[in-house]
Amino acid sequence: MILRLFCLVACLAATPLRSEEAQSFTLSVAPEIARTGLLEYMLPRFSLKTGRKAVVVASGGDASLHPVQTGAPAQLAREGVPYALTLLTGNSAAALFAGWLASGPGQAAITGFEPDAGAPFTVPARAEAVEEVRFEGDATLGIQVARRHCARCHSVDDSGALAMGQAPSFAVLRALSDWSERLTTFFLRAPHPAFVQVAGLSAPFDPASPPAIVPLVITTAEFDALLAYASTVAPADLGAEIESR
């Protein structure tokens, strides 16, 4: 044990220490941004969060925050002008600032600042690539399966079939980011296992707890068709996400 400890100490002593990360960086900013007072509001919050300090310089520096062409990636905007942070050196504190600026707290600092005059700063919306999910199957058969079975609880289309108010419609389900996972596993999600079976996929009903309603049994072909139909349904407009205050 003593020998192992001695070897460990010797190895640590022989290993060169990693150079310390930068504790500060220099930042040049467009004059029209500097005049608003945004830096005085934003940079102390960055320092409090990370322990790193930004030193504002007239030009150059480790990072630069200046206007970019419309459509180019930008971290903030004001009065229609987008601004982007450009890293000019390998300073680690500057890179940390870039990450903070794109994070939730950084964006909150941008939008939370209220200039004495003129419009506030905004965070440009970022377009996110959305993967189009399509399932192989007979969508025409799928809508028939949905109307025959799923319409008990879910609104399937505009056919006028009644449904339980608590169950989301197919259009609402399609608007959820994980809709494909929800639908491919619906027979495993409560309350479906109590009365739904997909032949070859579902476990048999528990004899001690038989279905309280007429069970719903579909084949794997009908299951595939149901998924194919669901992928053609237009997502409902659920509006903006709810923000807690």
Structure description:
With 245 residues, the chain is of the alpha/beta class. It has two domains: 21-112, D-Maltodextrin-Binding Protein, domain 2; 139-230. It is built from nine helices and seven strands, in the order αβααββββαααααββα. It has helices spanning 2-14, 31-34, 38-50, 92-102, 104-112, 139-148, 170-174, 179-184, 220-230; strands spanning 24-29, 53-57, 63-67, 76-78, 81-87, 196-198, 216-218. The strands form two sheets. Strands 2-1-3-5-4 form a five-stranded mixed β-sheet. Strands 6-7 form a two-stranded parallel sheet. Helix 4 packs across helix 5 and helix 6 (139-148) crosses helix 9. The chain is elongated and about 75 Å long. Keywords: Heme, Iron, Metal-binding. This is Cytochrome c domain-containing protein. It comes from Albidovulum sediminicola. Residues 137-234 form the Cytochrome c domain.
